[in-house]
Amino acid sequence: MSRTLQLDAGGRLRHFLTIEGLGRDWLERIMDTAESFESVAAQKVKKVPLLRGKTVVNLFFETSTRTRTTFELAAKRLSADVLNINVAVSATAKGESLLDTVRNLEAMGVDMFVVRHAESGAAHFIARHVAPHVSVVNAGDGRHAHPTQAMLDMFTIRRHKRDFSRLTVAIVGDILHSRVARSQIHALNTLGAREVRVVAPRTLLPVAVERLGVRVCHDLDAGLEDVDVVIMLRLQKERMQGALLPSEREFYRCFGLTAARLRQARPDCLVMHPGPINRGVEIASEVADGSRSVILEQVGHGIAIRMAVMALALGAVQG
Amino acid sequence: MSRTLQLDAGGRLRHFLTIEGLGRDWLERIMDTAESFESVAAQKVKKVPLLRGKTVVNLFFETSTRTRTTFELAAKRLSADVLNINVAVSATAKGESLLDTVRNLEAMGVDMFVVRHAESGAAHFIARHVAPHVSVVNAGDGRHAHPTQAMLDMFTIRRHKRDFSRLTVAIVGDILHSRVARSQIHALNTLGAREVRVVAPRTLLPVAVERLGVRVCHDLDAGLEDVDVVIMLRLQKERMQGALLPSEREFYRCFGLTAARLRQARPDCLVMHPGPINRGVEIASEVADGSRSVILEQVGHGIAIRMAVMALALGAVQG
Amino acid sequence: MSRTLQLDAGGRLRHFLTIEGLGRDWLERIMDTAESFESVAAQKVKKVPLLRGKTVVNLFFETSTRTRTTFELAAKRLSADVLNINVAVSATAKGESLLDTVRNLEAMGVDMFVVRHAESGAAHFIARHVAPHVSVVNAGDGRHAHPTQAMLDMFTIRRHKRDFSRLTVAIVGDILHSRVARSQIHALNTLGAREVRVVAPRTLLPVAVERLGVRVCHDLDAGLEDVDVVIMLRLQKERMQGALLPSEREFYRCFGLTAARLRQARPDCLVMHPGPINRGVEIASEVADGSRSVILEQVGHGIAIRMAVMALALGAVQG
Predict the structure, then answer these.
(1) Looking at chain B, which residues constitute the CATH 3.40.50.1370 domain(s)?
(2) Which ranges form a coiled coil (chains A, B, C) (predicted)?
(3) Low-confidence ranges of chain C (pLDDT < 70)
(4) What is the spatial distance between Cα B119 and Cα C95, in angstroms, rounded to a whole number?
(5) Which DSSP string do the residues of A163-196 spell out, in sequence order?
(6) Which of C211, C263, C201 is nearest to C233 (CA)?
(7) Is B279 helix (H, G, I), strand (E, B) or coil?
(8) With an 8 Å Cβ cutoff, are B97 and C279 in contact?
């Protein structure tokens, strides 16, 4: 279903909502396109005219300056006009329904919605209802998916490791609440990673997580053994107030990535994190800033990936 | 007075503050100009360079993401630079007077203020005090006027009905608090509509509303009889808390537009609404989304009308 | 130290953080460059392509719509892309450190940070840690400095008076809390002003203010005697609630600039104020709006000065 929603009748990418159902060909096509945009950031004039005269709306029902900024920058580097709409303070306060908001913006002739929403499925819902010429990109929906984040992670891994079939990747931390983890697991499996491990206490794992195609570990040392890539997840501080976790200190002691812990991994292991990092909560500063960390590199690739997704979905480049 | 304030010595449009005093020639000129911009939205590159290097300031003393968005889009399609200033959170909090705020922005070399203010007359006040090279557009002031909204409504009607002299138009709902209704009444009478009716309970009508040149109805069925166009107004939910109205349900029963009610109107009657709509309060979903509804079309024409007003006021096109 | 931080190995301006240590040559170079940008505001198309494809981030840890607007306008007139980030509502709320925020934006390929922060030294701190290709401009840090404001003041004085060595300048008001005053004193002394006076009650003067190279007056009439320029400072209303000052009325009686008071100054004395002004608190309306006032002229020059600083720091013009 997601494939048919995301691709049009001619097999072109129209929406980018989730990794599921896209297939390895599309993930590679997105990464190849991003590769061609990497050089734009190095140019003196960091702009290409591919989306000139197009209007991209950042439709954020949940505040995320960081994610909004990456999409805004990506759109501007493609020469699009960008409208930032924070719906929490906007029309919904006046009782306008989600679809009425979308249809109104659509009627103004916008070309793309970048949607962030606290509820899973919001971007899909919008995608199912927009006019044929409008594209939707999911910038994070509830616990469900954050596909551009997963793609920039894959892109970063590919740049360093090339062949996914040889890789063991550990994803560590709050898997339960993480839309990023879900998207990463789908992407790694689609790209043929040898093994995907999730490392977390039982309270922070979804029910039947094994069905996603992962090996489960409850011990960090075992989970890191011989991995090629470790992806640390951000621990949402608000989880601490609930009964799921004893304390930050306790979490760090058991699941925090320190230099000592990292010795379990392969010597050339990449350390990744979607950011923003909590130093001393899920990761030690010496690791976050250390030689194996590619955390800031991920951020940079995030612009290229978002440019790629936008340009492909609006038909400005051939996938 | 409004005419002399809105037109310069050479008879060109300088400010756009109210429909009153502009005359039929100007309303038609604005619509003709908008007609030429309708095609821009259909182009691959939805931009014309008419206002390149001009700076438009959205000076909003009252939050309205929706209205701000339409002006921002219109300005960007004309290639202007746009500054969004929400004055509630800005200098006035530091005790700076309205005029000092305006004069400061003026000194920075801006070209146009799009003003939204909760008090009637705010845009006129600013227009009387700006430097000769600066234009002011009223984006809604108190209960007084919302002239670009009225013009996009006229434009929508003209596209469907052509000749105003044959039309009976009903405006239904909270006339008392509506700046939109006031501007629509002036525009319809200026354009020579055969009859303008207002349909509302006595508590939601201004004193002596007949003097504006309308027929008053307190019954929706009678009010809709043989009309060519029905314009539903948004019912501000906050009115409900006062003594003016019994309840939403009661209002809907008496003044809500349903498919059954609409049968009183002519078979080709247009259904209009300035948005955002309250489904089940002033209008039934089946009517809002039905075949006679041009509500979303209005939104699209709003961009063209705002482009026209901006381009005319800044002398980028000949009126 | 500030010189070495602000200039690169080749002696070019890289950051603009403070007037201290820059030297007369650089202050004059900035003013000369601003002179060349003054004409841009008068052009039909108020844009030059000097920073096309560059990304300027307004990184504001303290809200200041006014200052943010001037930098945004200046950047847009140079054709840069602008990102506005209000950090109070952004990632720091999620516990991300200042440097992580900066490094993330840096990784996205931005070229310049315009930094506003309530703590003295914040812009220096960021400048010491950014990547080699990134520039930092201080848009006000705590009580420390506001160098672009001081430069636009110097530029305004130079346009009217030409030769600083003949000038006596009085700075009047809350010197203690003013970052503007500190930067002005440094700039005036660097440019060789004959005499810089500070005029304030003892409670609003920093300890040992004489060491900055100023003459201290506690009496306004004496302080204004034969001055060529008087710069009034804004009285922060929140100071009134403390023990530093008896009342607004009392302050105005002793230190408010009225037409009568101004007679102590030279007949061609300029009246300046960084804005926003408090009418009837530190300055009478008749003086603020009078013939000697250049307050609004300062605002206009502020755009040219900020364009100059941005273009110099990013190497788009030769200093």
Answers:
(1) 2-145+300-313, 147-299
(2) none
(3) 1-3, 88-96, 238-244, 319
(4) 41
(5) -GGG-EEEEES--TT-HHHHHHHHHHHHTT-SEE
(6) C201
(7) strand
(8) yes
CATH topology of domain B2-145+300-313: Rossmann fold (3.40.50)
What is the distance in angstroms between the CA of the first residue and the CA of the last residue of chain C?
Answer: 20
* The pLDDT value given to residue C43: 85
Please state the CATH superfamily assignment of the domain spanning residues C147-298 in this structure.
Aspartate/ornithine carbamoyltransferase (3.40.50.1370)
Shortest distance between the Cα of A53 and any Cα of chain B, in A, equals 4
Instruction: Return the amino acid letter for C58.
Output: N
**Cα dihedral A178/A184/A187/A190 (nearest 10):** -90
Inform me whether the pLDDT recorded for A128 exceeds 70: yes
For residue A113, give the H/E element and its range.
strand A112-117
Q: Touching check for B109 and chain C: CB below 8 Å?
A: yes
- ipTM exceeds 0.85: yes
CATH number given to B147-299: 3.40.50.1370
- Which chains share 3+ C-beta pairs under 8 angstroms with A? B, C
Q: Which of A46, A275, A279 sits opposite C53 (nearest CB)?
A: A46
3-state secondary structure of C113: strand
Scan for tokens 């247009």, then name that residue: B270
pTM of the model as a whole: 0.93
pLDDT at B239 over 70: no
Distance of CA B198 to the CA centre of its chain: 17
Q: How far apart are CA A232 and CA A283, in angstroms?
A: 7
Instruction: Please answer whether residues C59 and C113 qualify as being in contact, where contact means their C-beta atoms are separated by less than 8 angstroms.
Output: yes
Alpha carbon B240 to chain centroid, angstroms: 23
Which of A40, A52, A66, A252 best probes binding to C when mutated, by most C CB atoms within 10 angstroms?
A66
Read off φ and ψ for residue A63, nearest 5 degrees.
-70, 130
Looking at chain C, the number of H-run helices and the number of E-run strands are: 13, 9
DSSP string, C83-104: EEEEGGGSGGGGT--HHHHHHH
Structure tokens at B205: 């009508």
Q: State residue C242's pLDDT score.
A: 64
Give the SS3 label for residue B105. Answer: helix
